[in-house]
Structure formats: C-alpha cells, structure tokens
Amino acid sequence: MKLILASNSPRRYDLLKNAGYNFTVIPSTSEEKADKSLPPDKYTEILAYDKAYSVYANNLDAVVIGADTVVYYNGEYLGKAENEVVAKNTLKKLSNNTHLVTTGYAIISENKTITGSVTTTVTFNNLSNEDIDNYVKSNLWVGKAGAYGIQDGFFLVKNINGDYDNVVGLPISVIDKILKENYEK
Asked: Which of 73, 74, 85, 132 would give a disulfide with 99, using CB separation of 3.0 to 4.6 Å?
C-alpha cells in the first residue's frame, strides 16, 4: 500500500511513524472553506476530506490520510493564533475552563472513502498571567489550534477525558484500526 499523509504537521507525522507506518508526506494545498456554523465533528470532517482529496486527486494509486484539528470553546472555534496577543487571549479564555478538541479524519483510496471524527474533552488548570506569558514566550503555541500543545510539557492541562493522541493532532488508534481493517500495512 502506498500511504500518503496530507499534512505538514510534525505531530501527525510522529504519531503515524510511531505506529509503524511507512508513508510519504504531501501537504494539502486546499483552502479551509467549511461552514463554521457546523458542529465540530462535521466541520473537521469536511476540512479533513478536502485536504485528503486535494492530495488524492494527484495520487490515485495511493491511500491518503487527511486530518484537521480544532479547539471548540463556548460556541467558538479557537484556531491557530496569528500572534502573541491572540495566543495570550486564547489561553486566558481556556484557563480554568473545559473545551473540546475534535480531530476530523478522511482516508481516501480508489475503492473507499472513510471519514469520521474523535472528540476529547480537555480541562485547563487555572493559569496565572505569568504561566501564560512563559508559555507564549516559549513559542510552542505557534501553528497549534487553541494556541497550545498538550505534549509541550507546560502546566496547562488539568485533565482530559478521551484520546490523548487526538489532542496532539491525530487519533492514531482509530486511524490504525481503519488502516488494518481496510488496507495492508
């Protein structure tokens, strides 16, 4: 099986590699055009499908995996922060609160398209301004939905309910099961 990850995310790369897969990375060039009035599961599935399909269209002999992760809090999508001010404001919103992290996935091949999503509930610690400033200064928030990475080693997250790898960016246990049941490793 020729497997392609339609993502530039180093976190998704590591999760798929650590699961034992050999694959090529071809980042998607699709624009994120889903309707933000949709619930997180549908929203992320559409974005993941668009990403996977944009790569699959030029690689018809492959199995292509696309994914998109969002942080959803209080009816709002908290995307990747454009700058430090936005990152700080995002982290202040999440401080001492619970939010959802949803990753939509799409696996496209010649014979089959499988889409779905996984949602994990994440509760943040009560972060001081100093905690937030230190994390933002680390630049670990750059390029991450919700302006944080659960794997970054900072004292941000109090508790999670669900799939840890999903919060990192790819529900690898679900992806692994689908690939094993539908494709050769």
From this structure: 73
